Amino acid sequence: MKSPSNARPDAKLADFLCFAVYSTNLAFGKVYRPMLEALGLTYTQYVTVVALWEEDDQTVSGLGEKLFLESNTLTPILKKLEGMGHVERTRDPQDERQVRVRLTRSGKRLRERALGTDLVDACGISTGEFKRLQKEIVALRTNLLRAAGQE
């Protein structure tokens, strides 16, 4: 495996791609904060609900794969969302080992309340650039997971 260029002794933090991605994630959190506070959700709870808006009635394992979360991380998130009345968890009638998650009426209504945070505007780039950058970041994630032996 080649050494990353950031391993040079004179490398500066600003030169690290991983730091650029990390600090950008923190900036996204600042843009999302007002909406998340209004919804009473954390970012991880929010993306969990978004994944269920996209495809409701999923297994916990399937949802975890989609969110890149292990069961021991996802389960407390789902318990909290269930306690808030946004999701319900039930055993799969066809396979009792599986737990299914679905949105409640309250969870579905969160969608209308979540509208209004425009990331394309906040990013200061065109819609085309936004889509291109998103695809490039997904490709980067895929390559990193492959390099880590997790894909």
TrEMBL record:
<keyword id="KW-0963">Cytoplasm</keyword>
<dbReference type="InterPro" id="IPR000835">
    <property type="entry name" value="HTH_MarR-typ"/>
</dbReference>
<keyword id="KW-0805">Transcription regulation</keyword>
<dbReference type="Pfam" id="PF22381">
    <property type="entry name" value="Staph_reg_Sar_Rot"/>
</dbReference>
<dbReference type="InterPro" id="IPR036390">
    <property type="entry name" value="WH_DNA-bd_sf"/>
</dbReference>
<dbReference type="InterPro" id="IPR039422">
    <property type="entry name" value="MarR/SlyA-like"/>
</dbReference>
<protein>
    <submittedName>
        <fullName>MarR family transcriptional regulator</fullName>
    </submittedName>
</protein>
<feature type="domain" description="HTH marR-type">
    <location>
        <begin position="14"/>
        <end position="150"/>
    </location>
</feature>
<dbReference type="InterPro" id="IPR055166">
    <property type="entry name" value="Transc_reg_Sar_Rot_HTH"/>
</dbReference>
<keyword id="KW-0804">Transcription</keyword>
<keyword id="KW-0238">DNA-binding</keyword>
<dbReference type="InterPro" id="IPR036388">
    <property type="entry name" value="WH-like_DNA-bd_sf"/>
</dbReference>
